[in-house]
Structure formats: structure tokens, C-alpha cells
Amino acid sequence: MTAFTVSDGTDWIQRLVFGAPTDRWRLDDYDIALQVRSSVGAAVLLDLSTANGKLIITDPVARHLEVNVAWSEIDAIGPGPFVFDVLFSNKTTEVRARSERHNLTITDAITFPEV
Question: Cα Rg for the chain, rounded, in angstroms?
Fold first, then answer.
């Protein structure tokens, strides 16, 4: 399990790397989705995917995936602990695989821009 922290009112831009350096699988042929929830089975608070552009495969060979969520979406959720995993769906074989569970904490912001 990996823990991620984002401050309220900031963008969540982070690179995720999957697998070991010696692994031979790639991300070229995958649809990838990630749903942030307050707990398993709870309502989806953030719905990220390669289809909606919030997950971007930046290096398919090295299995680099970038999370790209605007501050307004983070701000709408508010502070708290959250969970997510990553679902990989192979476009050719239709085989699905899931990452381990991860924690996301959104912390209170201290400094806000003047309006």
C-alpha cells in the first residue's frame, strides 16, 4: 500500500510507476481507471481514467502513469482520508488486473490566493 498526500486547493499531479524494472509488460494496450472513495464501497468522489484524460500514460515501456487532477476537483472533495486502487483492462485480451489498495489524504490548505 502506498500513501499519497495532496493539499486542498492544489492540483494532484503525480507519477505512478507499476511493476519492477525487469518486468516486460507495458501500458500501451490498456484502459486504466482509478476511483477515489472515502472507504471501500462508498460513493465515487473522483473518477479518473485514461479515457477522460485524468490519467495519462507518459511512458508505456517503463509503466509510468501520471495523475492529473485540477485543484477545483480536489477542493470539492475536501480534507480527509480516502482510498483507491487502479484497474488495468487490456484492450486486446480483455484481461483485467487490479493494483493494491492505496491511501490518499487531502489536507487542509493554509494559504489561499486573494480573490
Answer: 15
Identify which of 85, 76, 80, 81 has the alpha carbon closest to the alpha carbon of residue 48.
Answer: 85
Residue 40, amino acid: V
**Model confidence pLDDT, tens digit, residues 60-78:** 999 999 999 999 999 999 8
Residue 109 Cα distances to 62, 68, 112, angstroms:
34, 19, 7
Nearest to 62 by CA among 89, 34, 86, 27: 27
What is the chain's length? 115
- Find, among 107, 108, 106, 109, the residue nearest to 37 by Cα: 106
Whole-model pTM: value is: 0.88
- With cell 488486473, the residue in question is 97
Assign domain 3-20+27-107 to its CATH superfamily: Immunoglobulins (2.60.40.10)
- Residue 78, C-alpha cell as written in the block: 475536501
